[in-house]
Amino acid sequence: MTYTPVSRKGSSLANTKGITSLNIVVILSFLVLLAIFLIENENLIAKNYQIRGFERQLQDHQELIAKMQIKQIEQASLPVLEGVAKDLQLIVIDKIKYLQEIDSSMALTERSLP
């Protein structure tokens, strides 16, 4: 049995072109994935800043609501209501007097106009 040497020069050139094209494809796909990562990372950072802004607004509104509730409680307090009644010159009732009930029965009649 005799072996004949096969020229590998042509196949070596084809392998080199294949490896080069494979390297180019790998590098391009890496660059595409890197670009996608950077774009999504930028979007994530922007959303994070929006969330922080909304959290600050929420905290400000909660503080405002708490202040308004305190103000409402103060306005509904008895000393404030008495002060408003005096400003409006309303009569303050300190002593309540009741009519005495009469033991006898009475009937009311309508008055006729002449």
TrEMBL record:
<protein>
    <submittedName>
        <fullName>Uncharacterized protein</fullName>
    </submittedName>
</protein>
<keyword id="KW-1133">Transmembrane helix</keyword>
<keyword id="KW-0812">Transmembrane</keyword>
<feature type="transmembrane region" description="Helical">
    <location>
        <begin position="20"/>
        <end position="39"/>
    </location>
</feature>
<keyword id="KW-0472">Membrane</keyword>
